[in-house]
Amino acid sequence: MEPSLAVFDIDGVVADVRHRLKYLDRRPKDWNRFFAAAGRDPVLAEGVELAREYARRHVLVWLTGRPEHLRDVTTAWLGAAGLPAELLFMRPVDDRRPARDFKSRQLARLARESPIELVVDDDPEVVERLRGLGYAVRLADWVPRSSTLRTAQEREGRT
């Protein structure tokens, strides 16, 4: 029997992006500085512990709205946090769909290959969409939800 997948988001689940939100709270938004600081994200212990727990019995997959150009930074960050980074699905450079649309499409592709045991995401709109599609989903609620991050994920399709 093939192992099932545990699919985790990164930002707001295992990586604390709050220190970077200041770059999106200004006008104009400074996306370059926001993304440039991704390698300095503090670890969210609760999310990292949960990811490690699921990695013991499942294939751990990362599904993030981070843009593809952050692959090397993200892979290095995951490694430094002691997390596997082999299966990392990122947002294509020109993809500006809301996170719920991007992630539901990616999950449908993954589900054709292997059963999905659980999806963990910090975005309530993503969680609601995926639950409606029949996935077992857990809302990562260990960091207070930021309206700045919500806008970036759902309206601007940037993370």
Description:
By secondary structure, the chain is of the alpha/beta class. The chain has a single domain (5-155), classed as HAD superfamily/HAD-like (Rossmann fold, 3-Layer(aba) Sandwich). Helix content is 38%, strand content 16%. The protein contains 6 helices and 5 strands, in the order E-H-H-E-H-E-H-E-H-E-H. The protein has helices at residues 31-36, 45-55, 71-80, 99-113, 124-132, 147-155, and strands spanning 5-8, 59-67, 88-91, 116-121, 137-139. It has a 5-stranded parallel β-sheet with strand order 3-2-1-4-5. Strand 2 (59-67), helix 3 and strand 3 form a beta-alpha-beta unit. Helix 4 crosses helix 5. It is globular. The mean pLDDT is 93.
What can be said about this structure in brief?
The protein is an alpha/beta fold and 159 residues long. The chain is built from 6 helices and 5 strands, in the order βααβαβαβαβα.
How is the secondary structure organized here?
Blueprint: E1 5-8, H1 31-36, H2 45-55, E2 59-67, H3 71-80, E3 88-91, H4 99-113, E4 116-121, H5 124-132, E5 137-139, H6 147-155
Parallel strand pairs: 1-2, 1-4, 2-3, 4-5
Helix pairs in contact: 4-5
Attribute tags:
159 residues; alpha/beta; Rossmann fold; five-stranded parallel β-sheet; 38% helix
Helix content: 25-40%
Name given to the CATH architecture: 3-Layer(aba) Sandwich
Strand order of the largest sheet: 3-2-1-4-5
Q: Give the number of helices.
A: 6
Segments where pLDDT lies below 50 for 5+ residues?
none
**How much is the average pLDDT?**
93
| SS-derived structural category | alpha/beta
**Strand portion, in percent?**
15-25%
Order of helices and strands: EHHEHEHEHEH
Radius of gyration: 15 Å
**How many extended strands?**
5
Question: What's the quaternary structure here?
Answer: single chain
Distance between the termini: 34 Å
Task: State the domain count.
Answer: 1
The CATH C-level class name:
Alpha Beta
State the CATH topology: Rossmann fold
**Principal-axis shape:** globular
CATH superfamily, called what?
HAD superfamily/HAD-like
- Largest β-sheet summary: 5 strands, parallel
